[in-house]
Amino acid sequence: MPDVVTMDKIVSLARRRGFVFPSSEIYGGLGSAYDYGHYGVLLKDNVKARWLEAMVRERDDIVALDSSIILHPRVWEVSGHVEGFHDPLVDCRTCKLRFRADHLDEAQCGRKPSKRPGETEDCDLTEPRHFNLMFKTRIGAMEETGVDAYLRPETAQGIFVNFKNVAQIARRKPPFGIAQVGKAFRNEITPGNFIFRTLEFEQMEMEFFVPPAEAEEWFRYWVDERFRWYTRFGIRESHLRVRPHEADELSHYSSQTSDIEYLYPIGWSELEGIAHRGDYDLSAHTAGSGTKLEWVDGEERYTPHVVEPAAGVNRSMLAFMVDAYDEEEVAGRQRTVLRLHPGLAPVKVAVLPLIPRNEDMTTKARALYEDLRRAVVAEYDDSGQIGRRYRRQDEIGTPWALTVDEQTLEDDTVTIRDRDSLAQERIPIAGARALILDKLAQDWTTPKVD
Ligand code: GAP
Q1: How far is C-alpha 214 from the chain's CA centre?
Q2: What residues contact residue 9 under an 8 Å CB cut-off, 6+ apart?
Q3: Which of 272, 350, 363, 442 has CB 3.0 to 4.6 Å from 260, enough for a Cys bridge?
Q4: Top mutation candidate among 201, 252, 258, 262 for ligand 1, by most atoms within 8 Å of CB
Q5: Is the pLDDT of residue 143 over 80?
Q6: pTM above the 0.85 mark?
Q7: CA 227 to chain CA centroid, nearest Å
Q8: Residue 239 gets which letter from DSSP?
Q9: Per DSSP, what are the bridge partners of residue 150?
């Protein structure tokens, strides 16, 4: 069956159910900036939690870090970002729009009949100029005495400048990694495609420090490992691919990069990059700061090489939503459902009294909900027709719904409805919490077929 999902459907669902809103909407919105509502926050938090689990909790060789967003301005000079972190841009003197010189074939000209910038004689493009992507800010109360600083465009540099602190205190020997989740900022000028490309976003980055001779092997290991993480959390393998970078697309710090790409409705696009950064960063900061960032153990002394899997939280969230989106007809009615991995679903279980006016039912349902919410994110809903309540939960991706009905009042059982198969089963209320926890601990594969 062809995929029914489009970017418009995702944007509309995200808005309708309160996952994502355009930022500053009452002032007309701000291009490439979005705000996350209740379910968006829960989903985004789950993406980060599953990443941290896989990278830190389930491993012995990676530790966590949370560094500042504003670092010493020298960090960005020494890292090469002031000099090298830019996009080549061209301006059109006719339509006054600005385009990425390397993405002209995807851009839309401001004037008709030209479709692509440069396509007709009317287009009057400047030569490409470099435009730095870092947002500048100023530290200090006074304009005259303040110091220029930058909002970090990647979380990675906070890890490199802490290499010595962490290596000493965590008592780790290469190969070992430092993982960080946090905000990054880029002054992007190309249209964002919803939350795919925004000015402000979150990254999940891990710098893996290895003996130089092992770097190539670890690079391959991390490409495979990260690919598996996406399939483990439900993305269809047919919608993922690994694309090695051509020499002319490599970042200034990288000698080898492979992107994990996802087949978004906008086409194959980067979800995560795995880069072989060599000793670029540790050597640069050693030279720039005078502090030796190397591994010393007795006679052994070397600058570790770095393999970096760098993922975007927001782009992952978008990919998980797109891949989970489904529509089907059930008993003559259309339903939209997010078939999210239960570990990612914002709400794990909904508790619904069948007849909201029946006080015995609502009391029982409320008590069950109070019990469940101590263990997982649960929701209680007693407003409207049961069918509409199910559909609401389907659209936010809640994997299970427990319904309290007449029989519950007689024998303390409830029905459990499965979001994907729609199968309903009766279970004792007393075992409900354990059953949900047990289901959450199980492996899961998406019921969606290509
Ligand atoms: N430290 C390496 C680094 O920052 P990157 O490929 O530029 O590498 C890593 O960024 C990931 O961050 C990307 O794969 C993407 O998921 C996410 N990302 C980058 N720029 C973004 C933006 N403007 N909006 C949303 N996500 C972005």
Answers
A1: 29
A2: 325
A3: 272
A4: 201
A5: no
A6: yes
A7: 14
A8: G
A9: 136
